[in-house]
Amino acid sequence: MSRIFSGVQPTGNLHLGNYLGAIRNWVALQEDFECIFCIVDLHAITQPQDPDDLRAHTREVTAAYIAAGIDPEKCIIFNQSMVPEHSELAWILACTTPLGWLNRMTQFKEKAGKHRENAGLGLYAYPVLMAADILLYRATHVPVGDDQKQHLELSRDIAGAFNRQYGVDYFPLPEPRILGAATRVMSLRDGANKMSKSDASDYSRLNMTDDADAIALKIRKARTDADPLPETPAGLEGRAEAANLVGIYAALAETGAEDVCHQFAGKMFSEFKNELSDLAVARLGPIAEKIGELKADTGHVDGILRRGAERAGAMAKQHLREIQDIIGLLRP
Ligand code: TRP
What we know:
The chain contains 13 helices and 5 strands. 54% of the residues lie in helices and 8% in strands. It folds into 2 domains: 3-184 and 297-327, 3-Layer(aba) Sandwich (Rossmann fold); 209-292, Tyrosyl-Transfer RNA Synthetase (Orthogonal Bundle), CATH 1.10.240. The strands form 2 sheets. It has a 3-stranded parallel sheet, sandwiched between helices. Strands 4-5 form a two-stranded parallel ribbon. It has helices spanning 16-29, 41-44, 51-67, 85-94, 99-103, 106-112, 121-136, 149-166, 212-221, 240-253, 257-264, 269-295, 298-327, and strands at residues 3-8, 34-39, 76-79, 141-145, 175-179. Helix 3 packs across helix 12 and helix 10 (240-253) packs across helix 12. By secondary structure, it is mainly alpha-helical. The site of tryptophan has 13 residues, from strand 1, helix 7 and strand 4.
């Protein structure tokens, strides 16, 4: 039996890179697996957050996932802090996690920067909370981006350490499903950088909330080169911006770069961009519209999160009781 768990941080400015790299994968997985999807607000507060932004972003991310096709009946979607067992299990797991393992985490080093003594304990313990998220549901598979691979390996190590320490076979070792390598979406202005929510120029990204005019304008202004589309993807080498647009077209059309090159070989990018723009509007337009509707109805979105938290919470409570018994913690 497989059970999938994945988490996403509540951030604003969700863009095409998030959609193609993560969101769309979740939508596909829910058809074949039991899926639990979590908006990890407790992870978000490992770095300073404005409270109003945090609330808004939690709802916005939920709206985007629902608009993109996550069905709250088929899977469980909720925000982490509504199920307090995540924090409780994080403490328990922290007690079986050696400091040496945490000291290896590259993301902590990056985020903490030069003044490591000033970094919060939460930022340091971030991967333990992530392990708790996954293990609380005894999940077997975890779809994550490449940047989370190390954290997932740590989750496996923590699961193994707990099982060994208590002589049980309670936690399955969660398997990574690394996503997104094939659909790395780069900035529309600079093919060397990933499309990013924090890029100062809004022209660098297609936001999931962009309307048809904005999509068309940004694609028209996207950087390319003067050469036509090549016959094969080999002809895109050293042409980062051209390769990016071909890649985006291929991902949206759910085909490969070979097909796209074959179809448009010899055409200029000015012409290709019109096709890309039509395709992007057709795929993203309805999602943007639905996000708009959901954002206007926070009561509905909050209701989805509450119901998701109830369902997740029932499983979490049951598992935490079992874990407390394994450890020898008296419970009510
Ligand atoms: N750390 C993940 C990220 O930043 C988010 C996350 C939190 C997560 N808990 C998780 C992902 C559990 C997968 C499973 O992308």
